[in-house]
Design goal:
Number of helices: 12
InterPro entries: Rieske_2Fe-2S, Rieske_2Fe-2S_sf, Ring_hydroxy_dOase_asu_C_dom, Rng_hydr_dOase-A
GO molecular function, one term: iron ion binding
Protein name: (2Fe-2S)-binding protein
Shape: globular
Structural class: alpha+beta
Domain Rieske: 73-180
Pfam families: Rieske (PF00355), Ring_hydroxyl_A (PF00848)
Distance between the termini: 40 Å
CATH topology of the largest domain: Naphthalene 1,2-dioxygenase Alpha Subunit, Chain A, domain 1
Length: 468
């Protein structure tokens, strides 16, 4: 493998890998490319180390709970998770728990998951009910949160029914996702989402359905896990088999900040069906095609030839289009090569990473696991497009992996299983390494890890002076 370093410009953060840029590749697309993908928005955010205590400190975790998780909009589920009245999902983050339920009128509400009698969780899992009844003593509330039954009501003359409704969090929907916020005084979700709505609108995430949902508790802080999935810099060491068809070090990273005090968003576009600059001279187009088919379209290996004089990208894209039509029935005839092939990943603060393309229709979510800064909950979802006018099926239920199971226990993830397992080999060791590291902080690349730096700057804005 060759060194991909280039002559450093005078301005920090301006150095780039050799090889074709994402924008140069988009210019060769065989279809019209959505306008947001044609934007570039990078700015240098500094080069100071990130304090390692942010990942390992119980005190820092408690600060996050009080000033972030109790105050921020966060994705709880998809709308198709709760399509009918009475359908509900339990959303847990740290020690907080919310029941996200569709009421008889079709509204979506979120109630704090605790009986107002003696505190038992009202719901232990997701499901469907016609009322919310505590399993301990039988206190019962309607789906609208009103108290409807108290066994031995004569013994509770001091309860005012009007004041004994279930406390609510805010709820709102965006792009087919249901968001919650425990802070009743928070800004509206639309204001919080901001410009990322313009970016993702062309991709129609609200029209897709959640066909796959895999959940795994990881042996690391939620930020350690999150940060591993918002940069492609790790591919050369962690996923070397991808170098034959993935432009890792010429990924485009985009930073979008705001001037109104709310968190911005960011994005990376990693081109596929090209070989990595780390390999030196580009691979032959046929070799690129065969390598990508090997991992994600094995039935196509040996069946398609790249014509002389062509690159692999348009040929692979056309084959993957046909595969997608066969699998989903969706019309993707005018969907760009980039949306079919590339890893187009956005980040919505604080913990959600939706992918825009249809070839890799992923969404990631990262949450603290209880009050343990050394563990987190990692959700992997796949949002599949549907044929025009087709009714949206109910979402796939979460497939929760056990402590001794890796992602091969979730074959519904297909070729992604092996890639995610490679990531697993790092995360627990990062958490342990941070505790033994004598250096007080972690060092980030100026460009390839700029999304991580923006995330921490937005996190600091929530945590205030206590973060330093």
């Amino acid at each position: 493998m060759s060194d991909t370093g280039v002559q450093r410009p005078s301005d920090p953060g301006e150095a780039r890998s050799p090889g074709p840029t994402v924008q140069e590749l988009l210019a060769t697309d065989t279809r019209e490319v959505p306008k947001p993908l044609l934007e570039e928005s990078y700015e240098f955010l500094g080069s100071a180390d990130i304090d390692k205590e942010r990942y390992i400190s119980g005190e820092f975790h408690r600060l996050e709970v009080e000033k972030l998780w109790k105050r921020v909009w966060q994705m709880a589920c998809r709308e198709e998770d709760i399509p009918e009245p009475g359908d509900y999902v339990v959303y847990d983050v740290a020690d907080m728990s919310l029941i996200v339920v569709r009421t008889a009128s079709g509204q979506i509400k979120a109630y704090h998951n605790a009986c107002l009698h003696r505190g038992r969780r009202l719901c232990d899992d997701s499901g469907s009910v016609n009322q919310l009844r505590c399993a301990f003593h039988g206190f019962t509330w309607s789906l609208d949160g009103a108290l409807t039954d108290v066994p031995c009501r004569w013994d509770f003359p001091h309860i005012d029914d009007q004041k004994f409704g279930l406390p609510e969090a805010l709820t709102a929907t965006w792009a087919g996702f249901v968001f919650v916020n425990p802070d009743r005084d928070a800004v509206p979700l639309a204001d919080f989402i901001g410009e990322v709505d313009r970016h993702l609108e062309p991709f129609g995430l609200q029209d897709r359905f959640k066909a796959v949902h895999v959940v795994k508790v990881l042996d690391c802080n939620w930020k350690v896990a999150l940060e591993a999935f918002i940069e492609s810099y790790h591919v050369i060491a962690t996923h070397p088999q991808l170098l034959e068809y993935l432009g890792d070090c010429n990924t485009q990273y985009d930073i979008y900040r705001r001037n109104d005090g709310l968190p911005g968003f960011n994005r990376m576009i990693t081109a596929q069906a090209i070989s990595s600059p780390h390999l030196g001279e580009p691979l032959e187009p046929q070799d690129v095609l065969e390598a990508m088919f090997r991992d994600f379209y094995p039935e196509g290996v040996g069946s398609i030839e790249v014509p002389d004089g062509q690159e692999a990208r348009p040929v692979v894209a056309e084959a993957m289009r046909a595969q997608l039509v066969a699998a989903t029935g969706a019309d993707v005839s005018q969907v760009s090569d980039s949306e079919i092939l590339d890893a187009i990943e956005y980040f919505v603060f604080p913990n959600m990473a939706p992918w825009a393309g249809v070839g890799a229709p992923l969404t990631y979510r990262f949450r603290p696991y209880g009050n343990d800064p050394d563990h987190c909950v990692f959700d992997v979802m796949m949002l599949i497009p549907l044929p025009a006018g087709a009714p949206k099926p109910k979402a796939a239920p979460p497939h929760v992996l056990g402590p001794d199971e890796d992602f091969h226990a979730a074959p519904e993830l297909g070729g992604l299983c092996a890639v995610l397992n490679q990531d697993l080999t790092n995360l627990g060791w990062v958490q342990r390494g941070l505790k033994s590291m004598t250096k007080p902080g972690v060092t980030l690349a100026n460009y390839q890890e700029s999304r991580i730096r923006q995330f921490h700057q937005d996190l600091d804005a929530y945590l205030g002076s206590d973060a330093t």
